[in-house]
Write a structure and sequence with these properties.
The complex is a heterotrimer.
Chain A (H helix, E strand, L loop, with lengths): L1 H23 L8 H11 L6 H11 L6 H13 L14 H36 L4 H14 L3 H15 L19 H38 L2 H8 L4 H13 L1 H13 L5 H7 L4 H10 L3 H29 L1 H8 L1
Helix pairs in contact in A: 1-14, 1-15, 2-3, 5-6, 5-8, 5-14, 6-8, 7-8, 7-12, 8-10, 9-10, 11-14, 12-13, 13-14, 14-15
Chain B lengths: L14 H14 L4 H8 L1 H18 L1 H4 L30 H37 L1 H16 L2 H11 L5 H12 L1 H14 L3 H8 L4 H9 L4 H24 L10 H10 L2 H4 L2 H29 L7
Helix pairs in contact in B: 1-2, 3-5, 3-15, 5-6, 5-8, 5-9, 5-12, 5-15, 6-9, 7-8, 8-12, 9-12, 10-11, 12-13, 12-15, 13-15
Chain C lengths: L1 E12 L7 E12 L3 E5 L6 H8 L7 E10 L2 E2 L5 H7 L4 E4 L13 H11 L6 H11 L16 H12 L6 E5 L7 H18 L2 E6 L2 H7 L2 E6 L2 E7 H6 L4 H8 L10 E2 L27 H5 L5 E3 L2 E3 L2 H4 L13 H6 L8 E2 L13 E14 L2 E15 L4 E5 L6 H8 L7 E6 L7 E2 L5 H7 L3 E4 L13 H11 L6 H13 L6 H4 L8 H13 L5 E5 L7 H18 L2 E6 L2 H7 L2 E6 L2 E7 H6 L4 H8 L14 H7 L4
Parallel strand pairs in C: 3-8, 3-9, 6-7, 7-8, 17-22, 17-23, 20-21, 21-22
Antiparallel strand pairs in C: 1-2, 1-4, 4-5, 9-10, 10-13, 11-14, 12-13, 15-16, 15-18, 18-19, 23-24
Classes of the chains: A mainly alpha, B mainly alpha, C alpha/beta.
Chain lengths: 331, 309, 638
């Protein structure tokens, strides 16, 4: 049980650290952070209405209180899930804005991450199973080559070819002007149409890490004595590949996959920006460019917490999948 | 970023063996032993040649670039012509000149942020692994935290708060977010190395901790440090391009990321200026390829399991 | 009935950047049904490669470059994967050297048995069958539910053995099956193996570097050197009339420590580099009988006196004849290496014992480990006292886990005792309380107390030259600077027998043999001119044929330099050869102590006798007629 206790402590610790980091980042700049933000907004020659100032104050706490009081106030607000009010979308609360963006991201990125992991793991296993064959070099070299392509650039090329030149898919956005969000067939098929290109962009590069990781881990574990002994024992090739290779090779990828799933909450800033897709990533970038600090802070915290929770769950799962870990950490 | 995890020798890989080969090699040749070993590997050699070409272009950029990359007195949105090989931007700047100068930015960021995050990772990883005890507990916590905090959102957030967006800020942001992976690998490697009898022997020979780390341990980790640096530099180049593409880069600097950002905003997609769109991405991709090839070579040398037989 | 035929088998390693290496060259031999054949050789001789080739388990860059292996009528070298799979395990099984890694770490032991039965379509209750098999190797059925990491090394190796016997194979290839295990555990596994073979009647190819074990267990022994079989004859024949000079050398390195006169020899030099072409006999450079023809003509493996031998001198019958009785075997063989000088035991001649330089006084060490909320304590060392004297060797003998290494750490100040005192009285100043040293004082103390390590491959930094390794203590302790460092280093190397020193100073560790490395490690320990030398199993990682060489060096150093040495070992033979006094440690407690000859020759404590009985003894007179293990335990302790 010590293993699980340790992982839980780590989870609590990182959670606290992330929340505190989120508190500290805006305060790292000299002077009163609220004033600094206000003056920066003023510098952008926008008029600051009192509501915006109020939103900033809510986010940063009373400037008169000392840092520790501000910190307590902030913790209290976070625990209640109160992240204040967005001032670009005033009077909407930050929580509301996140609620709007989240489903888009979770569906697009979540689905592609799962597919990427499955495809990547299978291809990596296949390459290792046929090590040093033509299949192996095609998979390994192919994924390495694709991995060198900057993927926002790939996304731009996809738009150029399939949306602008061929006009097969819509160019940008999450849904067209002709439909409005709801459970209607028109909307769903429209949203699907819009999600194809971003999904393709994510799916081209997504499996690469899993392929390379799986292949290398598996080649390594198939080279070990227990796998050689399995050969000597006359076990079928497939059985050796799965139980003595893939079963062990996939373990390190479990944590990686959990983190990837956790980071889904944050969306993918690059792809969503290129496709102007109404998810969390674009919302983060928008909040950054319009200096909507409460929104930005909340998205960052939300993303981090998502990853931490996923990482914690992965650790728990790992404890069951790999019998060695439970033991090793107690010793 | 979407770049795959760089090929890094698994903990316990034969970094000592590789180092021995390099030391051996250095005695027979005037070139550094490292270079000779890498050069002998086919993939590595291609990677080194490609990287060399990029470095050359970056160094000679003012001589090669036909125009001032910021000079905007040309007709706007030109398709490639004899005078402007890759056309002009929506502001009337020469794309080819920007491409050449952009190599500088990418390499500077890669070198500086790569070095910085390798250094942070080295110091933290070595301290944690060598001292152990509560120091290790605290530093390991930091490392694990650094590993799980999502990098790009953190970069974006940090960049958003920065008062001035200079190139050095970008470098700092990338380094602060990218050191943890290297630190973890170095920590586990030093934990393996510090149990070696030659470390105990050095202590019995009267050597102090600092000397033992510098002279006995670090030399046996060189391949790990080099691979770690290459990985960090690769991540930094990608990170800079990503930030710049998002419009969060240094507005004063021409980089491949800002070029793509402007190409995207300036309607290169609609006007069909494929050269403006393709060239920076391709350059970036080739630079990343060169790093990947070099890393593959190092990995093949130091990890016997992955060696192609 | 011939079960396995190996014909002109060659295996070549072709690494990418290195020259090709013919690890196994033109090897021919047979194994009959039910026969127990030993394959004896030292590290790098190709014995494991040969074993893997027989099983067709070679992986690149190694490949079979010639010849064939026929098992039960099937040509293993050319058989298809399917033909091979039918053969594997049902007829031909194996136990690997490293018990640590030969079981799949993420599935339970039962699943590994189930896998094996399923692969060969054996119907029936897996649990019942597996339980039965575990009983064969004296393991409880609850082991089935365990994961490999929950088992000790010895248990894992028993599981591996049970697995190997699961389908009642005709031949089992055992590759160093007990290496790395504790002597007592080794003994019990080997005893069980011998019994099982008698019950089940399988043939064995037993690969080992351990001459005592091989000669004791096997019906017939093949000796390998430089990738070739140099001798092949019955174990009895080999024991009484070894015909190859190398076999004679190996036998000479072994002796029964209980005999009144113990003498061992070593073979100078190092094995051939197989990546280079050789003319003549590969053993020539190390051979005391080599003639001109040996350097020119490569000898064939030819019948000679009831066996096969690859030696021109033996074939032409010019080898000095020795008829060896069991008792004086070592002594007689030893005389064939006069040039090297035989190492005899010190014979316990305590002249005037000098004052103690180091006293360990009622020392205990308790470790506290925390597991979650519970804490548990282990007493690694309990109430141990002894003294070390100039010019004398004190051996500390015990199994792994007996607390030997903890004592070494306490004496060198790496750790502090929980109670008791460690006093160093050899310095010029007042007595040093070692158990209280820290910082600078500890560094100063180590000027006087130095260590020789177990593993010469880990004790030298692979990236640093010999000169660098030697320079550090000279700079730190002797305060030497400039050219004086190199001069002194050269002197040190020559004092440990590495002459001319100039040849060695600029070498990297990997360019040296194991024995040479251990000499460099010793030279480094001598550099500060210490008064106490702690040698922690200094020969256990070395090849058998050169162990005596290092022992001889250590013995000379102790006597010439008036060093006080603590010699830590599990090997009673080496303790007998080197030490004046023996301390036997069992679970942290000293159970027996006294002059070497008394303790080993007439052990009083049960544990000491258990250690003695665990030593394989091919010279035991009754061995060939019956059960080896029974003979062993019936053997009186002197």
């Amino acid at each position: 049980m010590a293993y699980f206790a340790r992982r839980f402590l780590f989870f609590i610790g990182t959670l606290w650290a992330a929340v505190t980091l989120n508190f500290l980042i805006p305060r790292l700049q000299p002077g009163d952070p609220a004033e600094a933000i206000v003056s920066r907004l003023a510098g952008q020659s926008e008029s600051i209405d009192p509501a915006q100032l109020q939103a900033i104050r809510i986010m940063l706490g009373t400037p008169d209180g000392n840092l520790f009081e501000q910190y307590l106030q902030y913790l209290g607000a976070v625990v209640q899930g109160d992240f204040g009010v967005s001032y670009t979308y005033f009077p909407y609360s930050v929580t509301h804005m996140i609620g709007q963006a989240l489903p888009w991201t979770v569906i697009l990125v979540g689905v592609t991450q799962i597919i990427s992991f499955i495809v990547g793991t299978l291809l990596g296993t296949w390459a290792a199973y046929r090590r040093n064959s033509r299949v192996d070099s095609v998979i390994t070299l192919g994924s390495t080559f694709l991995g060198t392509l900057p993927f926002f650039w790939l996304a731009l090329l996809l738009i150029y070819v399939f949306a602008i030149t061929l006009r097969w898919f819509p160019e940008r956005g999450g849904y067209g002007g002709g439909s409005s969000p709801g459970w209607s067939w028109i909307f769903i098929s429209d949203a699907f149409q819009h999600s194809v290109l971003p999904a393709v962009a994510l799916l081209i590069t997504g499996p690469i890490g899993w392929i390379i990781g799986m292949r290398n881990n598996m080649v390594q574990s198939l080279g070990e004595d227990h796998a050689r002994l399995a050969v000597a024992r006359g076990l079928p090739r497939r059985r050796i590949a799965l139980t003595y290779g893939a079963r062990i090779a996939i373990l390190p990828n479990v944590t990686g996959f959990a983190i990837a799933l956790g980071s889904v909450l944050g969306g993918t800033v690059l792809v969503e920006t290129v496709f102007n897709y109404p998810g969390m990533g674009r919302l983060l970038l928008e909040s950054v460019s319009s200096r909507d600090y409460p929104l930005m802070q909340a998205i960052f915290l939300f993303t981090t917490v998502g990853v931490l929770v996923a990482n914690f769950l992965a650790d728990l799962l790992y404890g069951f999948l790999d019998p060695r870990v439970r033991k090793a950490e107690t010793a | 970023m979407s770049t795959p995890a760089p090929a890094v020798p698994a903990p316990g890989a034969d970094t000592e063996g590789l180092q021995v080969a390099a030391t051996e090699q250095a005695r027979h040749s005037r070139l550094p032993g490292w270079f000779v070993i890498l050069w002998r590997n086919g993939k590595c050699r291609i990677g080194l040649l490609m990287l060399g070409a990029f470095v050359l272009v970056a160094l000679l950029a003012p001589l090669i670039a036909p125009y001032d990359p910021r000079g905007d007195d040309f007709p706007t949105s030109l398709a490639p012509t004899g005078g402007h090989w890759l056309g002009t931007t929506a502001q009337g700047e020469d794309v080819f000149s920007q491409l050449i100068v952009g190599a500088r930015t990418s390499l500077i960021v890669g070198l500086a942020a790569g070095l910085l995050s390798t250094l942070i990772g080295l110091v933290i990883g070595l301290t944690a692994g060598y001292l152990q005890g509560w120091v290790d507990e605290v530093l390991s916590f930091l490392i694990n935290l650094g590993l799980v905090v999502p990098a790009l959102p953190l970069m974006v957030t940090l960049a958003a708060y920065a008062p001035v967006r200079g190139l050095w800020l970008i470098i700092a942001v990338i380094s602060v977010t990218g050191w943890a992976y290297g630190a973890r690998i170095k920590r586990s490697q030093i934990i393996t190395l510090r149990t070696r009898d030659y470390i105990t022997a050095a202590r019995f020979a009267g050597d102090g901790t600092a000397r033992i780390i510098a002279r006995e341990i670090v030399p046996n980790m060189t391949s790990l440090i080099v691979v770690g640096f290459m990985g960090a530099a690769l991540g930094a180049i990608g990170g800079e391009a990503g930030l710049a593409f998002l419009g969060l880069g240094d507005p004063q600097t021409v980089s491949w990321g800002t070029m793509l950002n402007q190409a995207s905003l300036g309607g290169a997609l609609l006007t069909g200026q494929w050269a403006w769109l393709i060239a920076p991405g391709l350059a970036l991709s080739l630079l990343i390829t060169s790093f990947t090839l070099i890393n593959f070579g190092i990995d093949a040398l130091s990890n016997p399991h992955l060696r192609e037989d | 009935m011939t079960l396995l035929q190996v014909e002109n088998l060659s295996v070549t390693y072709t690494p990418r950047d290195l020259p090709a290496n013919r690890a196994v060259h033109d090897v021919t031999f047979d194994i009959d049904e039910g026969e127990f054949v030993g394959l004896l050789g030292e590290s790098g001789c190709g014995k494991s490669t040969l074993g893997n080739a027989v099983l067709r388990l070679l992986s690149p860059p190694a490949r079979i470059s010639g010849g064939r292996v026929v098992f039960d009528g099937v040509d293993v070298t050319t058989a298809s994967e399917d033909e091979l799979r039918a053969l594997r395990w049902t007829d031909l099984s194996t136990v690997f050297q490293s018990s640590m890694n030969s079981l799949n770490p993420v599935i339970r032991v039962q699943a590994q048995f189930a896998d094996t039965f399923a692969a060969h379509r054996i119907p029936g209750d897996v649990t019942a069958r597996a339980t039965e098999l575990l009983e064969l190797v004296s393991l409880d059925r609850h082991v089935l539910r365990a994961y490999p990491h929950e088992l000790s090394g010895g248990m894992k190796q028993r599981v591996a053995l049970a697995l190997a016997l699961a389908l009642r194979p005709k031949l089992v290839v055992l590759d160093e099956p007990t290496t790395g295990l504790d002597v007592v555990v080794q003994r019990s596994i080997l005893t069980r193996l011998a019994e099982l073979r008698r019950e089940l009647g399988f043939a064995v190819l037993f690969i080992s570097h351990d001459l005592g074990t091989v000669l004791e267990m096997a019906d017939r022994v093949m000796v390998m050197y430089g990738g070739e079989i140099v001798e092949n004859r019955t174990a009895a024949g080999m024991l009484h009339e070894p015909r190859h000079p190398y076999t004679r050398g190996l036998l000479g390195s072994y002796a029964d420590p209980r005999l009144p006169d113990v003498q061992v020899t070593y073979i100078p030099g190092r094995p051939p580099d197989l990546s280079r072409p050789h003319r003549g006999c590969l053993f020539t450079p190390r051979c005391p009988h080599a003639e001109d023809a040996c350097r020119e003509v490569h000898p064939e493996l030819l019948p000679e006196r009831g066996g096969l031998v690859r030696c021109l001198v033996a074939q032409e019958d010019r080898l000095p004849v020795v008829r060896l009785g069991a008792a004086d075997a070592a002594a007689t063989i030893g005389s064939h290496f006069p040039a090297t000088g035989a190492l005899t035991d010190p014979g316990g001649t305590p002249d005037v014992v000098a004052e103690a330089v180091l006293s360990v006084d009622q020392v205990s060490k308790r470790y506290t480990t925390r597991r979650g909320l519970r804490t548990s304590t282990t007493d690694a060392v309990r109430d141990v006292s002894f003294t070390l004297h100039p010019g004398r060797v004190t051996a500390l003998v015990g199994q792994s886990g007996s607390g030997k290494s903890t004592i070494a750490r306490l004496v060198t100040g790496v750790e502090r005792p929980s109670s008791g005192e460690v006093r160093f009285e050899g310095g010029s100043g007042p007595t040093v309380r070692v158990d209280r040293l820290r910082g600078r004082a500890l560094v100063d103390y180590r000027r006087h107390v130095q260590m020789v390590f177990q593993d010469p491959f880990s004790a030298l930094n692979p990236t640093r030259t010999v000169a660098y390794a030697l320079s550090r203590p000279l700079v730190n302790f002797a305060g030497l600077r400039g050219t004086a460092i190199r001069e002194r280093s050269a002197q040190l190397l020559e004092s440990v027998g590495l002459a001319p020193a100039g040849q060695f100073l600029d070498k990297l560790p990997h360019q040296l043999s194991g024995g040479q490395r251990q000499r460099v490690v010793t030279a480094r320990a001598l550099a500060p001119d210490p008064q106490v030398l702690i040698a922690d199993e200094p020969i256990s990682m070395l090849d058998v044929s050169i162990r005596a060489e290092i022992l001889e060096l250590l013995g000379e150093l102790v006597r010439n330099r008036r060093l006080a040495m603590l010699y830590i070992t599990h090997d009673l033979l080496s303790a007998r050869l080197l030490a004046d006094e023996v301390l036997v440690l069992n679970q942290g407690v000293l159970v027996e102590r006294g002059p070497t000859r008394d303790v080993i020759g007439a052990a009083r404590d049960d544990y000491t006798r258990l250690l003695l009985d665990s030593i394989p003894n091919p010279f035991a007179p009754a061995k060939r007629s019956g059960d080896a293990s029974v003979v062993r335990s019936a053997q009186p302790g002197g």
